[in-house]
Design goal:
- The chain is an alpha/beta fold.
- It has helices at residues 3-6, 33-38, 50-53, 62-75, 111-117, 119-132, 148-167, 185-189, 191-194, 205-213, 231-246, 264-270, 282-289, 298-302, 308-320; strands spanning 22-27, 44-48, 81-84, 138-142, 178-182, 200-203, 250-253, 274-277.
- Helix 4 (62-75) packs parallel to helix 6 (119-132) and helix 6 (119-132) crosses helix 7.
- It is globular.
- The two termini are 28 Å apart.
- It binds phosphoenolpyruvate and magnesium ion.
- Phosphoenolpyruvate is lined by residues 46, 48, 87, 183, 204-207, 254-255.
């Protein structure tokens, strides 16, 4: 890592005109925590819990999960940890989770859809997360939401888990914050309504790009069409941020685009509250953000671009000035 970047350890992430944007980290394996701390991540914006379920024969027990979540939370010493419930299916296969072969796995039984059908699996996870929230700063996030009812059902299950824990006299944070990932065009267009039901949004631009451009994110034959610079993706993100802030909730980006230097001026100008990136990108992004200012008109100019290529050219020109 560049020595120069290391000098940004302990600094705030703040544009020249004084706008604070938090730089959080994505993590899969609990071992990634050390990297988060070494790189001065301001929190964990996406804990991909599916890795706890992989390379084994049965799902992790409540106790195993509780220990992992609370250890991660304790190491973060009061900083926020956003735990995403199991995002299985699509590109993420788990041997003992028998999702039948599907013609279109990315459009099939995955993530929150599967978990709402397997109530016990999700309840166990929610209990573990809740119990860990008693001593750590933990939030819960549900993936791949498309329909309003999924939010209601997931929240109902969370209430059920809370009620049971109260009966068992187990403590947890009763005001734990609940958010959803915005990863589908349906979630984008429903975001005004969804924002009334949850405490925060996190935009998963990997899937949002896949579903908006109708391009399988793993298929190299059509990857030339997979672009977060496609104006449709940028317009979607604009809509989500406006709808979130209209309801007074925070919105972050946790897909790969959170690390794209060319897009950073757009994210801060839009007023993204938090970017969640791989640990080794934290300091470089902080350095970059601390060197630029917000430009309120940038987004409206950007969405006039006709294509992804035009968007890239436009943003390159802007970053020179
Ligand atoms: C995303 O879709 O952008 C995201 C962050 O989730 P994942 O990459 O785990 O699907
Ligand atoms: Mg995703």
């Amino acid at each position: 890592q560049l020595e120069e970047e290391k000098s940004f350890i302990g600094c705030k992430t703040k544009t020249r005109d004084g706008y604070n944007c938090k730089i959080y980290c994505n993590m899969g394996s609990p071992e990634d925590v050390q990297q988060v701390l070494n790189n001065d991540g301001e929190g964990i914006g996406l804990f991909r819990t599916e890795f706890l379920y992989m390379n084994r024969q049965t799902p992790p027990t409540e106790e195993e999960q509780y220990n992992i979540y609370s250890n991660v939370g304790k190491k973060l010493k009061g900083k926020e940890v956003i735990i995403r419930t199991l995002d299985v299916g699509g590109d993420k296969k788990i041997e003992y989770i028998n999702i039948e072969d599907e013609l279109n796995p990315f459009l099939g039984n995955r993530a929150i859809r599967y978990c709402l059908q397997e109530e016990k699996l999700l309840l166990t996870q929610l209990r573990a997360i809740l119990r860990a929230s008693k001593e750590c700063n933990i939030k819960i996030m549900f993936p791949m939401i498309t329909a309003f009812e999924e939010i209601i059902e997931a929240k109902k299950l969370l209430e059920k888990a809370k009620k049971k824990l109260i009966e068992e006299e187990k403590s947890f944070n009763k005001n734990i914050k609940v958010g959803i990932m915005i990863e589908t065009p349906a979630a984008v267009f429903n975001s005004a309504e969804f924002a009334k039901e949850v405490d925060f949004f996190s935009i998963g631009t990997n899937d949002l790009t896949q579903y908006t451009c109708a391009v399988d994110r793993m298929n190299t034959k059509v990857s030339y069409l997979y672009s977060p610079y496609n104006p449709a993706v940028i317009k979607s993100i604009k809509m989500v941020v406006e709808n979130a802030h209209g309801e007074g909730i925070e919105v972050s980006i946790c897909g790969e685009t959170a690390s794209e230097e060319l897009l950073l001026p757009l994210w801060i100008s839009l007023g993204i509250d938090e970017l969640s990136v791989i640990p080794r990108n934290v300091l470089g992004i902080r350095k970059h953000i601390n060197s630029i200012s917000r430009n309120e008109t940038l987004i409206n100019e950007a969405i006039k671009c006709k294509s992804g290529d035009e968007m890239i050219k436009f943003l390159k020109n802007k970053s020179v000035i």
